[in-house]
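Task: sequence design from structure.
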């Protein structure tokens, strides 16, 4: 995957994350004027593209579905740190940030990334084929975790408002981490074959790795380190521009939930690009592993993290969704179930998922 004509240290995929990390150090906890915000945005884009490259190097080395898991967990772990940091710094105005960001991640992954991947794969190869056993198991876990963590707080009565009591929050956090652990075990150990790409005839491809040109151990280790640097830079720079985003949202008269949407879009950019590139290569199952794995990691890691941090937060933890978002979540689960069952999808299914995402974005701006 790495260029054979240029030393690793001289490649842009090495320079971009390093320079972005240096910029992060120079701008950390400092007010940013508009010219610096533009510079940060440019380096943020470079770090995103570099993260995609290094994730693909790692995936090429270890094969599927491990490569998808590496990127999803790495991105989400740093996303969780960003959410907790913003909640700790933001006070009451960020009480719903975890809910807004997690729900945005669900909508972006289960409708945006999934829909785009299916649309690209189906347009290029007539139909997009995938393994319904693994995809269905992942989607069912997402639906369960989303209901336990984001739907139930709206209807519980132990505390006023869309908020869990301490006992309920502890249960939701425990259920999230246990179910995510079971998913990872299923993905990597018990039923790995359910998450491998399939041929148009339904035959499982035992290995998605082309042994020719396999990255060396040195290149793979370098990519692991540079992926970590890239993701820290992406999330750190996103945090740096978040005050500018918040001011822009307020100046435009938009709801505060838009901040969570923008953060989720920035953080999920590496998975989005990697998923589309996999779909172009007719690896739609890899795209779905990225999409659904990211959604699962977002819930399974964020809810336990904010639950553990809640005693030290100066704001209540609002997790319950409002009526509009409850309807969109129910629609996403219904449409996703019907998409997964046939084991193949046409451009129509991709378009339907993208229409649900578009509705979410429109209603986020104009509730």
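Answer:
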């Amino acid at each position: 995957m790495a260029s054979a004509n240029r030393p690793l240290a001289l490649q842009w995929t090495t320079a971009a994350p390093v320079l972005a990390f240096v910029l992060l150090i120079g701008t950390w906890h400092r007010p940013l004027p508009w010219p610096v915000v533009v510079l940060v945005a440019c380096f943020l884009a470079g770090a995103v593209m570099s993260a995609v490259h290094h994730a693909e190097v790692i995936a090429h080395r270890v094969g599927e579905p491990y490569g998808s898991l590496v990127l999803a967990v790495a991105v989400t772990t740093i996303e969780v740190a960003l959410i907790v940091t913003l909640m700790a710094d933001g006070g009451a105005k960020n009480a719903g940030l975890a809910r807004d960001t997690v729900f945005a991640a669900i909508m972006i992954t289960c409708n945006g990334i999934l829909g785009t991947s299916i649309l690209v794969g189906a347009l290029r190869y007539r139909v997009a084929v995938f393994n319904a056993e693994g995809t269905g198991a992942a989607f069912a876990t997402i639906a369960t975790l989303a209901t336990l963590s984001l739907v139930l707080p709206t209807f519980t009565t132990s505390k006023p408002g869309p908020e869990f009591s301490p006992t309920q929050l502890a249960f939701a956090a425990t259920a999230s981490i246990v179910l995510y652990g079971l998913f990872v075990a299923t993905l990597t150990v018990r039923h790995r074959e359910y998450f491998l790409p399939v041929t148009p005839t339904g035959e499982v491809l035992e290995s998605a790795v082309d042994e020719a040109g396999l990255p060396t151990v040195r290149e793979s280790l370098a990519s692991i380190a540079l992926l970590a640097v890239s993701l820290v830079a992406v999330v750190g720079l996103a945090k740096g521009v978040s005050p500018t985003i918040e001011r822009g949202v307020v100046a435009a008269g938009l709801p505060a939930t838009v901040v969570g949407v923008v953060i989720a879009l920035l953080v999920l950019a590496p998975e989005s690009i990697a998923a589309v590139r996999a779909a172009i290569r007719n690896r739609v199952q890899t795209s779905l592993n990225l999409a659904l794995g990211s959604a699962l990691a977002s819930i399974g890691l964020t809810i336990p993290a904010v639950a553990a941090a809640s005693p030290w937060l100066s704001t209540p933890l609002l997790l319950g969704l409002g009526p509009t978002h409850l309807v969109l979540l129910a629609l996403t689960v219904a449409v996703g179930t019907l998409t997964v069952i046939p084991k193949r999808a046409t451009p129509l299914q991709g378009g339907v998922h993208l229409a649900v995402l578009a509705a979410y974005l429109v209603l986020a701006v104009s509730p």
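DSSP finds twelve helices and two strands in the chain.
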